[in-house]
Amino acid sequence: ETGVTQSPTHLIKTRGQQVTLRCSSQSGHNTVSWYQQALGQGPQFIFQYYREEENGRGNFPPRFSGLQFPNYSSELNVNALELDDSALYLCASSQNREETQYFGPGTRLLVL
Amino acid sequence: AQRVTQPEKLLSVFKGAPVELKCNYSYSGSPELFWYVQYSRQRLQLLLRHISRESIKGFTADLNKGETSFHLKKPFAQEEDSAMYYCALRDFGNEKLTFGTGTRLTIIP
Questions:
Q1: Residues in Cβ contact with B26 at an 8 Å cutoff, skipping those fewer than 6 apart
Q2: Does B96 touch chain A if contact means CB atoms closer than 8 Å?
Q3: CB-CB contact of A35 with A23 (8 Å)
Q4: Which of A68, A101, B80, B84 meets the CB 3.0–4.6 Å disulfide criterion with A49?
Q5: Rg (CA), chain B
Q6: How confident is the model over B52-102, as pLDDT tens digits?
Q7: DSSP class of residue B67?
Q8: Cβ within 8 Å, pair B43-A104
Q9: CA geometry: angle at A28 spanning B34 and A36, to 5°?
């Protein structure tokens, strides 16, 4: 059974650019949640996708958007990057919305 | 708004000594509480959740609704317990996990 994978592992962007991060959910999982983890902080919930629909959103501006595909993989898009967007972005998948979340290794984004 | 507080950023404990990682929460509904752990160079993984009432790797945690706490305990620390520990909360029926800032536990040989 393959676990949650994320790509790329690291990324450097400049302020104002746009970025797309990708997540492949664990086999049999239909739900993907995205988190932002700033240095020294715990993960912060961005949003969740369940069966290709957004199922809840944290306190993040609209320039953070996402997508879930029919195979339940997911993308996180961030437009107009700001310096404060520098963080580790974690993806977690689960069998259903309320089941245990299994985390990927994360994508480290640096905005210069 | 729901909130999770882990008052200790760093905790060092001698091998064989008892361990207690503190977690307090504020929430008015019916929370579901979790402990997640991240070992060096590994991904974040679930350690235990209060509804299962299990002991995992010798760790236990009891939900105390009166004190709004969910402290993680182990009677005898082992070197392999060194890791980053996060307490997290979720409302039943909700999708969002709210994490604390984490405690880095170091076991001194």
A1: B2, B3, B5, B68
A2: yes
A3: no
A4: A68
A5: 13
A6: 778 889 999 988 988 999 999 999 999 999 999 999 998 766 678 999 999
A7: T
A8: yes
A9: 45
